[in-house]
Amino acid sequence: MPSAHAPGTPPELILASASPRRQQLLRLLHIPFRVQVAEIDETPHIAESPTETVQRLAHHKAQMIAQQNRESLVLAADTLVVFRNEVIGKPAGPAEATAILHRLRGQRHTVLTTFALLHVATELDLVETSETHVWMRPYTNQEIADYVASGDPLDKAAAYAIQHPTFRPVERTKGCPVSVMGLPLCLVARAFRQSGVGGLAQVANSCDPASNHCAVTKLLGL
């Protein structure tokens, strides 16, 4: 049933994602939200670029949940990892995770994260994409083996987590490092402010993507 809110108060916020990392990031803004997962077909369309795919998927997820909750503000997101014009998804198992990490070692790839913010009642329909270039460090074969054995890479695109406390696969980034985790939090916070959602923490206000100085990365230990 659609959620109503009193005049003058912010609408209910729904995160259309089951990702624990997106939920962790969104909690940093100290805005109450609930999760409602959008189940969609994520198969890329023929002749569709990675940017077009990630934008379409994020928007489709948001549309699905927003149509069911017309008074609620719906946030959805999608992330793609692109290496040499190939989209690198989640590994099917340890062997594929190992192969992916070998391919990416010492190389640069691109992470595209799109978020969509929809509010049917006010016709808000915002889609924004963050592009981050990521350089992997020259980790060793043993480091790969230990990391894969931990099980951590098996549910992650490109088989790694930028925030992993011991493997720490990333040497440097250009763009938003938090976006690599699945949500460009500072851009989302700006969109919330523009849409009239109040109660934002100051954590996202000091983000400077041009210089990679981001308060969120300090909180997360990146």
Structural class: alpha/beta
What percentage of the residues does DSSP assign to strands (E)?
A: 15-25%
Tally of DSSP helical segments: 6
The helix content is 25-40%
Number of strands: 7
Major beta-sheet overview: 7 strands, mixed
Radius of gyration: 18 Å
Task: Encode the helix/strand succession as letters.
Answer: EHEHEEHEEHEHH
Question: Which CATH class applies here?
Answer: Alpha Beta
Domain tally = 1
What is shown here, in short?
By secondary structure, the protein is α/β, with parallel strands linked by helices. It has six helices and seven strands; from the N terminus they run βαβαββαββαβαα. It has one domain (13-220): Maf protein, CATH 3.90.950.10.
Characteristic terms for this protein:
Maf protein, alpha/beta, seven-stranded mixed β-sheet, 222 residues, 6 helices
What can you see in these coordinates?
This protein has one domain: Maf protein, CATH 3.90.950.10. Helix content is 29%, strand content 22%. The protein has 6 helices and 7 strands, in the order βαβαββαββαβαα. Strands 1, 2, 3, 4, 5, 6 and 7 form a 7-stranded mixed beta sheet that branches. α3 (94-104) runs antiparallel to α4 (141-150). The mean pLDDT is 87.
